[in-house]
Design goal:
The protein has 85 residues and is mostly loops. Helix content is 11%, strand content 5%. The chain has one helix spanning 70-78; strands at 24-25, 32-33. A two-stranded antiparallel ribbon has the order 1-2.
Length: 85
Amino acid sequence: MKSTRTGRSYFIEPMGNPHIKWGSIDPATKKLMNKKGTGKYTGSIEPDESLITEENGFSNIRLLEPGTSPLAAVSFVDSQYPEKE
């Protein structure tokens, strides 16, 4: 995401658990039925799959605790920089 206030870019990847279970609810049993793509689309990645690494040129890498809003975290970090001119 790019800040409209400072012009700085922030890169976000959801990591680790919980992985989202994909499928549809069976109306008779009220249970999740797996569909095509199960296991493929997990909603997050494992840490070793991340593209946001120092080797790829990123600095100031931060991991957020589960339940922390990425938007709130970016807003907090962004507030520490002056506005763009």
